[in-house]
Amino acid sequence: MITDSFAVAASLYLLTIVLGLLRVGALARASLILGTLALLLGSALALPTGSAVARLWELGGQDVSWHLQTAAAWLLFWGGLAALAAFLSLGRAKRSGLWNAGAAVALLGSLGVAGLQEGIAFLIAWEFLSFGGAVLLLADGQQGAQRSGEANLYMLALLEIGAVALLLALLVLGAQHTAFAQWAGQWAGYGDAAAFGIAVLFIIGFGAKLGLLPFYEWYPGAYGSGSGASGALLSGIVLNVAYFALGRAILDWLPTAVATGTGILLVALGTISAILAILYAFQQEDWRRLLPFSTAENAGLAVVALGAASLFRADGLAWLSTLAWTVGLIHLGGHSLAKGSLMLTADRVADVRGNYQIAQSRVLALAPWTLGIGAVLGAMSLAAMPPTAGFAAEWYLFQTVFQDFHLSSSAARVTLALGGAGLALTAAIALATMVKVFGVGLLGRRGNTVRVRGRWPILALGLLVLAYAAALPWTLALLARDNWPPVPAGVQAMVQGPILIPQKFHFAFISPPLLLLVGLLLALIPLALLGWSHLRQGRRRVPVWGHGLERIPDDNAVTALAFSNAMREFYSFVYRPRTQTAREHNSREYFVRELHFNYSQAPFFGPWLFQPAVRLVQVLSNRIGLVLQNGSMNSYLGYIGILLIIVFASVFYL
Fold first, then answer.
1. Are 517 and 470 in contact (CB under 8 A)?
2. Whole-number mean pLDDT of the chain?
3. What angle do CA 243, 247, 251 make, to 5 degrees?
4. Residue 134: which pLDDT band, with cuts at 50, 70 and 90?
5. Tell me: the pLDDT tens digits for 620-645?
6. What are the residues facing 360 on neighbouring strands?
7. pLDDT digits (tens, 9 = 90+) for 141-152
8. Which of 73, 112, 38, 111 is nearest to 481 (CA)?
9. For a tag site, which of 15, 260, 339, 542 has the least CB within 10 Å?
10. What does the alpha-carbon distance between residue 303 and residue 216 come to, in Å, rounded to a whole number?
């Protein structure tokens, strides 16, 4: 039944690709929705035991099989819900048929990455993720063709760096057996230095899609060229399966001898990536550029949990390793729902304003209450406010890094302690960022009178954010048979009745169901006071305080720059802010006709890493091109012969 559901999903996605290319938009969308429903059904049935092993075909004399583990089923299910909401919402793609085809390609790749057990087929599925995402963003057509093309080429270039790293890891571990079942043994046969180098290859390969530094810099440009619906898909199910693939490499295949060094590297990369990503998110003025930076921040937090799991595994602390890995799954599951609600909210903002700018407008006043509730719950979760999914996940994450005193390595203990400090900084800036995106982006007095449609998927995702947290004391049992190897007692020790605990009750505890109930009861107090005041005095309208002004101008509003400028100046060593002012005059300089004010922040890695690399490639291509393109047939035959020798050597000697 489980395998049949995924087979139906894959078949419907293939049909969607055909219908989308034939520009049959309505049928392609229906096929895409039905395929996602089949994916959700299969993922739900695969919890908590996973799926059976299904043999698909034979490739190079080796069987290609597909098997869905519990963790992959969990991540597919919650990411699939966000994808389904995106498909049910009102799309903004200029070429809807091509967009549906791109979404189907990305989802096919997600199924492959989550379940394929053979290296070559896995790499093909991994490329499907990249290609499908590029098709999605190009089909949206939200920017000019040149800017959109440049952003997507930049994304694909960085993702191909990751793909090359994964290919190198495949050549090293899978030269004799490409089946994943053999990779742990192959990896253990290398020395510590070589084994750690292979781990770095996997971190680069999967980190390129997860947005670990420096790869997060492709996020704002690529996401900013598409719609919120595309962002919901890329920030949900695509991100989730990439995290699962990295977790399998680190916890299942990685030799224990290098687990400590790899864990330290992951915690450091995840913490720094989260801090830098949320710092840049706070300065953005476009919904589609702010939210992807937030996605990179949350991926960094999940990587911190994975790094902690590797550190605990190195010391033989199976229970704590299970705790850390499970926390990463909890975090990304809730993130899929919350980020999906805000990504779809961004599309509705663009319907009202005509653009995705974060500026005060009457969006929330014009929108039905359904959109407001869904958006505020999504923002609360990304800001880790109780009683949402984000709060439960980040509370668990803090409790995980606080277990550093169990580790034997002083370097590992210091790394987790510093990681905890970085998480605290990240949480504080994330709260301010979500206040900005919701308060400045949805509130205000200015705006037109366009009605907001397509809000029900946003409400559904927002309510799921609450339900996700409230149900955790019971749904965590679905992950009891997860991990490598499974430690059911470790997951069971994370819950005591309706209370979440970090495996020891006296250490710390919360109860999302209780927080939700108490929050609803406490909300009755201000509502009662508001009703009593309205009955006694009626509705009163009074001006807000405006910095001492007796009368506040109608156009007075808090801009995105004013909200975040203090942080921009304080962290100027990170942002390297640039402010440019230009004046246009009539006949004399005393009479200013126009004033142009522009400000920006320099990317952190671009000037120091990517731009020099681009210049180097351009110089080498100019010089090598003179040799390669010399018009000599003998030279061309020689080049082909050299390539054949390299191919044969890679087959027989690696």
1. no
2. 88
3. 175
4. very high
5. 877 777 777 777 777 878 888 888 88
6. none
7. 887 777 888 889
8. 73
9. 542
10. 14
In sign, the C-alpha dihedral spanning 385, 386, 389, 391 is: positive
**Residues forming beta bridges with residue 573, ordered by sequence position:** none
Rounded to whole angstroms, how far apart are CA atoms 243 and 237? 10
Cα separation, 522 vs 544, whole angstroms: 26
Residue 293: exposure state from Cβ atoms within 10 A (0-12, 13-18, ≥19): buried
pLDDT at 441 over 80: yes
Name beta bridge partners: 118. 179
Give CA–CA dist 125/114, Å, rounded: 9
pLDDT of residue 447: 53
Please spell the DSSP secondary structure of 267-336, one letter per residue. HHHHHHHHHHHHHHHHT--BHHHHHHHHHHHHHHHHHHHHHHHHHHHHTT-HHHHHHHHHHHHHHHHHHH
Tell me whether residue 585 is exposed, middle or buried, using C-beta atoms within 10 angstroms of its C-beta: 0 to 12, 13 to 18, 19 or more. exposed
Buried b (16+ CB within 10 A) or exposed e, 113-137: bbbbbbbbbbbebbbbbbbbbbbbb
Q: What is the pTM of this model?
A: 0.91
CB-CB contact of 266 with 202 (8 Å)? no
Structure tokens at 456: 């029900």
10 Å CB burial of residue 450 (0-12, 13-18, 19+) is: middle
Nearest CA to 280 out of 377, 213, 331, 210 is that of: 213
- Closest C-alpha among 78, 75, 43 to residue 325: 75
Q: pLDDT tens digit string along 376-413?
A: 999 999 999 989 999 999 999 999 999 988 999 999 99
Kindly report, residue by residue over 14-24, the tens digit of the pLDDT.
999 999 999 88
Q: Which two tokens stand for residue 57?
A: 């075909």
pLDDT in tens, 279-332: 999 999 999 999 999 999 999 999 999 999 999 999 999 999 999 999 999 999
Locate the domains of the chain by residue range: 2-508, 606-652
Phi-psi sector, 59: left (phi>0), alpha (psi -120 to 50), beta: beta
The pLDDT, as a whole number, for residue 632 is: 77
DSSP 595: E
Mapped to the 3 state alphabet, what secondary structure does 32-73 carry? HHHHHHHHHHHHHHCCCCCCCCEEEEEECCEEEEECCCHHHH
